[in-house]
Amino acid sequence: MTNHWIDIKNSDCILIMGSNAAENHPISFKWVTKAKEKGAKLIHIDPRFTRTSAKADIYAPIRSGTDIAFLGGLIKYILDHKLYFKEYVVNYTNASFIVNKKFGFKDGVFTGFDPKTHKYDKSYWKFELDKNGNPKKDPSLSHKRCVFQLLKKYYQRYTLEKVAEATGMPKDAILKIYKTYAATGKPDKSGTIMYAMGWTQHTVGVQNIRAMAIIQLLLGNIGVAGGGVNALRGESNVQGSTDHCLLYHILPGYLKTPKASQPTLKDYNKKYTPVAHDPKSANWWQNYPKYSASLIKSMYMEDDPNKAYKWLPKLDDGQNESFLVIFDEMLRGKYKGFFAWGQNPAVGLANSNKAREALSKLDWMVVVNIFDNETASFWKGPGVDPYQVKTEVFFLPCAVSVEKEGSITNSGRWMQWRYRAAKPLGDSRPDGDIICDLFKRIKQLYQNEGGVYPDPVVKLSSEKWVNEKGEYDPHKVAKIINGYFLKDVKVKGKTFKAGTLVPSFAYLQADGSTCSGNWLYCGSYTEKGNMAARRDKTQSKEQAKIGLFPKWSWCWPVNRRILYNRASVDLRGKPYAPQKPVIIWNGSKWIGDVPDGGWKPGTKYAFIMRKYGHGQIFGPGRADGPFPEYYEPLESPVKQHPFSKQLHNPLALTFKSKLEKLSFNNPKYPIVCTTYRVTEHWQTGVMTRWQPWLLETEPQLFVEMNPELAKEKGIKNGELVIVENERGRLKAVAIVTSRLRPFKIMGKIVHQVGLPWHYGWVHPKNGGDAANLLTPSVGDPNTGIPETKAFMVNVRKI
């Protein structure tokens, strides 16, 4: 989230799309309700009419996978009716930047596309630079190759009629939503977007979010109270785990994973440290060498970071190790072992039959969890002969959240400390203790017996993670993440002794004199104490206007609650919305939130994390294009769409094996299907499917369908049916409901059904199996996230 939960109450218009927040993120919906009480409009767009829809001022149905068609139409509407916030667009976005002459777009494909490699040469999308190496600009926004004019030309195809054809949404509903949301493009108004997996789990997932970011930049809704692009995280600590490198291509603090082609720390830093020539560009990533050296020192405290860099794991150039890829390689026998730690991929991963087959190719697997699950017991699952499975499975019972101490970071980037409420039961142990004990034994083996490459293991400063009893110490780890001075140094005119906690990432150094396990969290645990443990509601009168509560917990970075907040004021420091100011320049200093850089007004560009200092309407860094283009899901009910000749994302992540079976325009599988959550169950159901009172409310897998489809298929409410496609088949209870409705797509009627994805065969008996048995293992080219929200099935009565 660029903003945070409480800030939702400051919005004048809330668009919830790709989410059923009222049921699945109820804490967020408290603040939606607060906004509505003050007159805000709530818009909900979803294939189903849900509890969120019931609270909405405007609800509109949409066929799964067609979000960019709708959002592209909204961009066109804003531009055609001149509803953008021009001062904001000129000063704070790259709308005025001029793109080089090689850029173009035809028939759904951008220039620079190589049909053999299915990759783009991004040099075709670069900006024209002046003699100083800065992008050429036209503040009048009239140059034919400036981003603004290219955007207008690009989305002219996205007419109201074509949007309706693709999405199945009625034209009057589309127009009403466009008018309502575009009204937030005024200086004193703000609109926010709340989204979840309904947007991300597509082969165009990243571009869905990019499209909304463009809308928010055009309307001046980034950096302001009640604005932002706000992801609703599905678990309590998804934000924290991502910050600390849950994904293969990043290190903690969103540093890049080193490549084999970067053999030295100097090579690595040079590759990822941007150079800006405009004095008004803060270019905050110029500090990259300080953050990378401090990260390495947090791991190898006794060694020079230039030496220790070589011990970091490195990817080959072009190597993809996202989850879908890992399981494809596992299926091919590349891996001997696998740790399934706090996860259940036999249920949660797309194309579950493929995932389960891949698990059978291992020599060993360690499952760390609180209950038995489909991953731990895949070898005795439906249709599996245990004698044909070579994988040896070890199950380690771990403590639940209330049995361990540590921090969690919520969707709004608030790091909050929680304490242990009870001791772990039986032989279960906290994850930290399991990790420390496991690593201690591995380290001893390397020390005693040697190995092919022992140094990365034996030199790791793991002794810093534990207390005097050898037990995992969350406070010690939190302090390492914050960072220490490792030598007596003088920085910014201040003297610090070795062992002193670093007060802020502004004091981190590139010479090995500081450590920090995550530069973004520097300042979270200082000599003043554990900032995440604070529970002080004190706030200034300016902060009280928008509900900042800066002394309650801690927020990265540097306790800033709203990112890019310099864009909430004009070039003199005056808030665009004085009734809900984020920051204010009082003539000598900023007050309100922690400013996104403390410079005087107008001296630095607002978007300090970008090389050129501006919000990116034109985003030349994405794998599949600088503007979001509408592509159909890889499984689709239509043979063409209204916007171009390129039906699917040409860069979508796909695989080749006997288990990759796509149902494209197959008459055997004419029904669109999507997956979603219910309030009573959580993720793959490992925690909730063992609770009798939750099973009483949601006992088994069901499939929702509209009455017209049910009549066509001869299915009655409550009957058992088969949902199937080329990848698998499921038994489910039919719920016949008008919450779903048929769509008219490109002149033909298309039905959509929905499945919750929490169930599996282990427990309860006859509860059903994974909805992901039906989803395809195809993914977004930027992240690898699977397309589980739009695929094709058939439904038939048993």
TrEMBL record:
Keywords: 4Fe-4S, Calcium, Electron transport, Iron, Iron-sulfur, Metal-binding, Oxidoreductase, Periplasm, Selenocysteine, Signal, Transport, Tungsten
Matching CDD domains: MopB_CT_Formate-Dh-Na-like
Chief location: periplasm
Protein origin, superkingdom: Bacteria
Protein family: Belongs to the prokaryotic molybdopterin-containing oxidoreductase family.
NCBIfam families: formate-DH-alph
Protein name, as recorded: Formate dehydrogenase major subunit
Upper lineage: Bacteria, Pseudomonadati, Thermodesulfobacteriota, Desulfovibrionia, Desulfovibrionales
